[in-house]
Amino acid sequence: VQLVESGGGLVQTGGSLRLSCAASGSILRSADYAMGWYRQAPGKQRELVAVITGRGTTNYGISVKGRFTISRNTAKNTVYLEMNSMKPEDTAVYYCNVNLPAFYYETWGQGTQVTVSS
Predict the structure, then answer these.
(1) C-beta atoms surrounding 85 within 10 Å
(2) 8-17, 18-27, 77-86, range with the lowest pLDDT
(3) Residue 30 above 90 pLDDT?
(4) 8 A C-beta contact, residue 59 and residue 51
């Protein structure tokens, strides 16, 4: 599975950004899989931002609940992360993740930098 991320950049506090991640690979046609976003700030561990299952169930990290929204276009194997009311503490490298539990398979994107200026 290959992942292509886009949409990172610089935004001011209170602003918005939208991340996209497109997945490709033949295995995706035959498996239920979750797509999600994680982030890692300098000196910190990677943490969950949001994840969405093949059935549309979502889960969010506590720090982004109510501000970020994850969505998915199953036909395009693409996941989106709409980030609103952004804060400087949202600054991190954001990584796309695809998880196929039936195949014990997980993969990560290369990461996209998001910087929120104060």
Answers:
(1) 13
(2) 18-27
(3) no
(4) yes
Asked if residue 1 has pLDDT above 80, the reply is yes
3-state secondary structure of 111: coil
Residue 78 — φ and ψ, nearest 5°?
-125, 140
Q: Distances from the Cα of 53 to the Cαs of 11, 26, 65, 79, in angstroms? A: 28, 18, 17, 10
Q: Got the DSSP string for 41-102?
A: -TTS--EEEEEE-TT--EEE-GGGTTTEEEEEEGGGTEEEEEE-S--GGG-EEEEEEEEEGG
Evaluate if residue 19 carries a pLDDT over 90.
yes
Mean pLDDT, the chain, integer: 95
- What are the C-alpha distances in Å from 61 to residues 4, 6, 30, 67, 108? 22, 21, 29, 11, 18
Burial class of residue 49 (count of CB atoms within 10 Å of its CB; 0-12, 13-18, 19+) = buried
Residues listed for the chain: 118
